[in-house]
Amino acid sequence: MKYERVRNFVNGSFKEVSSQRTLPVISPTDGSLLAEMPCSTAADLDEAVQAAKAAFPAWSKTPIKERVQVFFRYKYLLEQHLQGLAALVSEENGKTISEAIAEVEKCIELTEFATSLPQLIAGEVLEVSAGVECRTSHVPLGIVASIVPFNFPAMVPNWTIPNAIALGNCLIMKPSEKVPLSLGIIARLLKEAGLPNGVLNIVNGDSEIVNAICDHPDIEAVSFVGSTKVARIVYQRATQHLKRCLALGGAKNHLLVLPDAKPGMTAQNVAASMSGCAGQRCMAASAMIGVGDVNHIVDLVCEEARKIVPGQNLGAVISKESKERIEKYITEAEAQGARILVDGRGVQVAGKENGTYVGPTVIDYVTADMAVAREEIFGPVISIMRTDTVDEALRIENANPYGNAASVFTQNGGMARYIAERASAGMIGVNVGVPVPREPFSFGGWNESKFGVGDITGKSSIEFWTKLKKSTTKWNPEEGVNWMS
What is the mean pLDDT of residues 143-155? Predict the structure, then answer.
C-alpha cells in the first residue's frame, strides 16, 4: 500500500477503527492499491456524534464573525496546499491533474463564500406597533451529516463543510469508500486553521454507515450527493426518522443544438461537457438533440472528441466495473442500430495497462427508447438524437425523469428564451455546456435529480442549515395593549 490504513477523524484526532472488515482503495489511473479503508460500525458513528454533541454548545454560541475566521485561515491553507491536494484527488479519483487543480480551486471559492455569511445571515428587525419590535435570527440546527460521492473527493465535501460549520453546526462527514483519502487532508487543514475539536468528524464506511446516519436520533439533518437510486432511499429513510434531508441524485442532461449555433464554439462545449472528469459528473452532457440540419456541427464534435486522449487530457473512470458498464451501453446502442462515430471502447494507456480508461465516444442516430438515451451512463459518452422541431426536442427533454441541467446552443435570443423557459431542469445554459452556477448562486436540480426542499450550497443554503427564530419584544407598558401588541 502506498498510504497507511485510512482512519476516522473524531474529536480532532485521527482514530483507528477496530473493524476487521476493510475495502481496498484502488487508483483508477493504474490499478495500484493506495490504502485499505476499514468499514466503521454504528458504534463508531455514535462516538463521532457524541464528540460533536460535546462541541456544539460552545461552537454554536461563538459569534459567526468569529466562526468564519477559521475559514479565512482555511482558505489560505487550501491555496498553500493546492498542488498536493490536487495530486491526491487525481490519484484516488482518476481525473487529470488540471481537473483536480480546478476542483481544489472550486473548494477555495466555496470557502471564500462562507466567509461572507456574516453579511448574509443578518436577521430582520421591525417596529410593528408602538414600542413593539419583531426580530428574526438564524439558529444552528445542531449535529448534521453529509454523505458525499466519489466523483469530487474535495469539492463536494466543501459544498457542505464551510457553510454548515460557519452557520454554527457540528458536522459528521461520510466520504465515498472509493475516495476517502482527500478528506483526511481537508481535516488536517481545518484543524490547522483552528477549528475546535469535535466540530468536524469523519466516519469512513459503506452503506452500514449511511443507514446509521439516517437512523441516529441525535443527527438533525442529512445531505446526500450520489445516484438517484440511493438518493431516494436516503431521503425516505432520513425523513422517516423526522430529519431534515436534501438528497441530490443523478442526471441525464440534454444539449439542444440549433442549426444557427456557432459551430466551433458549440463543438468545443459539447465535447468538453461530455468528457470532462471522464463524464463522471452530474452536470455532464449526456444527450445532444440536433434540431434540423446540424451535420456540420456533429462533424466538428467528432473532431474535438478525437483530440481528447485517455491518459493525457482524459482521466480514468473510477473502477473496472464502471468501465465495463459504460462499454456495455455503447455496445448495446450499436446493436440497436445507432452509429458509433467515435469509439472509446477497449482503451489502454501505455504504462498504465491496469488503469480503467474509456475513450471519448460519440453515438449518432440514437432513438429516445434506447438505454443510452434514457439512463445515466456516467462516462465520456454523448448520445445524439435528431428532431425536426424545437418542440419535438423539448418533448424529449421533458420526458427525461431527471432534471439537473439543460442547455441550448443558438444565436437566436428569442429561441434561447423559449427553450430555457420550457426545459424541465433546475440549471439552464445558453451556449454553455456545463451550466454550473457560481457562488452565491446555489447548485440544485429538479425532478428525480433532487429529493427535498432547498439547497446545500450558495446563499439559499442558509435556510437548509439553520432554523428561523422569531422574537417579539415589548418594553413600554404605558402604551397599553391592543390587537397588535
Answer: 98
